Amino acid sequence: MGTPVIEFRNYYWKYSLMNDWALADINLTIHRGEFVCITGPNESGKTTLAMSMNALIPHNYQGVMRGEVLIFGEDSRKLHPSQVSRRVGLVFSDPESQFLTMSVEEEIAFGPENLGLDIDEISRRILWALKLTKLSEDLLDKPPYELSGGQKQRVAIAAILAMKPEVIILDEPTSMLDPLGKAEVLEVLKRLREELNSTIIVIEHRLEDIAPLATRFILLNKGRIVKDADPREFFDDIDFLLANHVNPPEFMVVLNELRRGGLYSGRVPLRFDEGLEVIRRLLSHD
Questions:
Q1: Is the pTM of this model over 0.85?
Q2: What DSSP line would sit under the chain, residue for residue?
Q3: Contact status, residue 183 vs residue 105, Cβ threshold 8 Å
Q4: What is the mean pLDDT of each run of 10 residues along the chain (286 residues)?
C-alpha cells in the first residue's frame, strides 16, 4: 500500500435541517496510487463523500460533523478548500457548473494562474493537459460551452490536471455523455492510471467500463460503507450487489445466473470481452 492521502475516522455528516445522517460511521483510507471506484444507489452519500475529501464539506455547507477527515495528514476542518484544491482536484458530473471563463485556454489556465505560476510554466501546463486529455490546440480560443459533451468533460479534467493535484476525484464523469463522449473520458482515465500513476477516485453507478480500470471498489448504501474490496472480490457476490441496488454489468449477471444453476463454476470476469468469451464457450458446449 502507498502512503495514506485521505483518511476518514469515525466520520459522520448531516446537512442542516435534515433528520438523517448523509454519511455515518465512515472509516476509510485512500492510499497514494490507488484507482478507487465509489458506487451505490442514488442518495447513498457518494457526492457527499467526495465533497468531504476536498474540504468543501464542512466549509461550504452547513451541517453537523462528527469524527474527522485527514487530508494528507491534516484535519479538514483546519484547511480551506482553496488550499486543498491544489492537492485534491474535484470534477463534477456537469462540467458547465465548473466553467468560469469564456475560452478553453483561459479555463485551463485559471488554476495555475491562481497558484501564482509564471506565464511560461502556465503555457507548458496548458499544452501538457491538452495532450493528456487529447484535446486539440484548435479548441483553445473556443468558448467551452460550445463544445461537445465529451470535450466539455475533458476540458474540466484538463483544468484540474493543469494544477497537477496529487488526487483527482471525478463525480459521475460519464453520466451526461453519449457513448462517444463516454469513451473519450474513459480513455483519459486509462492514461492517468497508466502514465501518471495518479490517485484517482471515481464516483460511478455504471460499472461496466470502470470494472477493468479500478483497483478497489467501495459500495455505499444509506450513507454507510457496506462493502470495500478489490475488483475480484467485489464482483464475486453479484447477489449482494443487486440486493444493495447496484447494477453490475449485464454479462456478470448472466454468468452469476449460470453459476447459480450449476452451469458455470469459475469467477466472474471483469472485462466485457472476457465475459463474452466465457458465455460463448459455455453455449458451444450445449
A1: yes
A2: ---EEEEEEEEEEEETT-SS-SEEEEEEEEETT-EEEEE-STTSSHHHHHHHHTTHHHHTS-EEEEEEEEETTEEGGGS-HHHHTTTEEEE-S-GGGT--SSSHHHHHHHHHHHTT--HHHHHHHHHHHHHHHT--GGGTTS-GGGS-HHHHHHHHHHHHHTT--SEEEEESTTTT--HHHHHHHHHHHHHIIIII--EEEEE-S--TTTTTT-SEEEEEETTEEEEEE-HHHHTT-HHHHHHTT----HHHHHHHHHHHTTS--SPPPSSHHHHHHHHHHHHHT-
A3: no
A4: 91 95 97 94 94 95 97 95 90 87 94 92 94 91 92 91 92 80 82 82 89 93 96 92 92 88 85 86 75
Residue 253 CB contacts under 8 Å (≥ 6 apart), including other chains: 238, 242
8 Å CB contact between 267 and 232: yes
Residues in the chain: 286
